[in-house]
Amino acid sequence: MSALLLPVYTLWRREIVRFVRQRSRVTGALMQPLVFWLLLGGGLNASFRPAGAPEGTSYVAYFYPGTLALVLLFTAIFATISTVEDRREGFLQGVLVAPVPRWAIVLGQAFGGTTLAVGQGVLLLALAPLIGIPLSLVSVLASVAVMLIVSLSLTCLGLIIAWRMESTQGFHAIMNLILIPIWLLSGAFFPASGAPAPLSWLMQLNPLTYGMAALRRCLYWSNAAAVGAVPTMIPSLLITVLFCAVTLWGATRMARRAAT
Fold it and tell me: What residues contact 32, with CB distance under 8 A and at least 6 apart?
């Protein structure tokens, strides 16, 4: 293996092994969004019809792609918090003094978190037919590809914050302050159609809105009319990829600053 790829692989594998050994983390990252989906989706299903959604769309079905995004979000939070813990335990300092490029460290961390997030997203994806979302090979592959880009974006965004934080308590506070509103304003919980104008503008400025739109269009690959009023596919993909590139660049830059 190349000397440049070896640290990426090593840090990626460390994230996977650490995740597997922490059973509570596995349970929390997967079950918490599922509980949210069942409680919020089931509770609001009878009284809330998403504005702009096609006739007959239940709130449980509308909220399902948002739950997938929540799985990716929670996994990104849990994965990047390890950066704060690694600094406190001295592991990160050992990595930083090694002759390893900073981008390799960031890629190893980001790929580890992304792998975990997509793996859990795929498990939840298997529940789609239960709520009337038919899956095909194309829709599954396209959905996994979008989840991959969104997961990498969220993990890198988490790393940007984690590289600056000194405590896990402060990290949790900042993550909840930034990432939860990003998720809420992405169209995961309620659509932009019918929202008050200020919220609608914020949703249009939110890059995760376009990741959610791309994910919805991939899930309903063979039935585009069921997607509802969301941004079109190509612009959504372009903005999602651009957001991913910007967050990856930001995480690498933050790692370089932390090392100086």
Answer: 74
Which range is least confidently modeled, 40-44, 99-103, 117-121? Answer: 40-44
* Dihedral sign, Cα of residue 140, residue 142, residue 145, residue 149: negative
The confidence band for 246, taking pLDDT boundaries of 50, 70 and 90, is very high
DSSP-derived secondary structure for 91-136: HHHHHHTSS--HHHHHHHHHHHHHHHHHHHHHHHHTTGGGGT----
Residue 13 structure tokens: 């594998």
With contact defined as beta carbons under 8 Å apart, do 161 and 174 qualify? yes
> Cα Rg for the chain, rounded, in angstroms?
19
Cα separation, 48 vs 63, whole angstroms: 11
pLDDT of residue 198: 85
| Coil, strand or helix at 94 | helix
Amino acid (1-letter code) at residue 3: A
Q: Check the CA dihedral 104-211-25-173 and report its sign.
A: positive
* Sign of the C-alpha dihedral computed for residues 248, 230, 144 and 188 taken in this order: positive
pTM value?
0.86
Using one digit for the tens of pLDDT, what is the confidence trace for 130-152?
877 888 899 899 999 999 999 99
**Separation of alpha carbons 146 and 214, rounded Å:** 7
Contacts of 10 (CB under 8 A, 6+ apart): 108
Phi and psi at 229, nearest 5°, equal -85, 85
DSSP code at position 135: -
Residue with tokens 């104008």: 197
Judging by beta carbons within 10 Å of its beta carbon (0-12, 13-18, 19+), is residue 257 exposed, middle or buried?
exposed
